[in-house]
Amino acid sequence: MSLQLTDFDVDPVTGFLPNPDPLTRLPLYFAEWDRIGAQLSALLLAGQARRALATMPTLDPARLCGRHELERAMLLLSTFVNAYV
User: Fold this and answer.
1) CA separation for the pair 76, 78 (Å, rounded)
2) Nearest-angstrom CA–CA distance, 73 and 77
3) Per-residue pLDDT of the chain (85 residues; tens, 9 = 90+)
4) CA spacing 20 to 30 A to 34: which of 2, 8, 23, 24?
5) Distance between CA atoms of 5 and 35, rounded to whole angstroms?
């Protein structure tokens, strides 16, 4: 059995860093997730994170296209859950 770096999501040039770079924004439909993600530190400091997260609109994740958008969404949503807890 021959193992390849790509079997473990290791890039031969960037190593464990993603190649290409991760997305910094999702499509416009998901702008609210990006907006709250950008403000999350300030919301936590002000004690307003739970309120902001509770009032987020429900968005359809089926509108995410491809691995890069899914990874960006997972980053944001997992950060929101951690902030809420």
Assistant:
1) 6
2) 6
3) 788 888 888 998 999 888 889 999 999 999 999 999 999 999 999 999 999 999 999 999 999 999 999 999 999 999 999 999 9
4) 8
5) 35
H helices within 1-85, ranges in order? 31-45, 49-54, 66-84
* Burial degree of 72 (CB within 10 A; 0-12, 13-18, 19+): buried
Q: Residue 32's closest CA among 66, 3, 1, 63?
A: 63
Q: Quote the pTM value.
A: 0.83
Kindly state the tokens that stand for 76: 């944001």
- Alpha-carbon distance 66 to 24, whole Å? 15
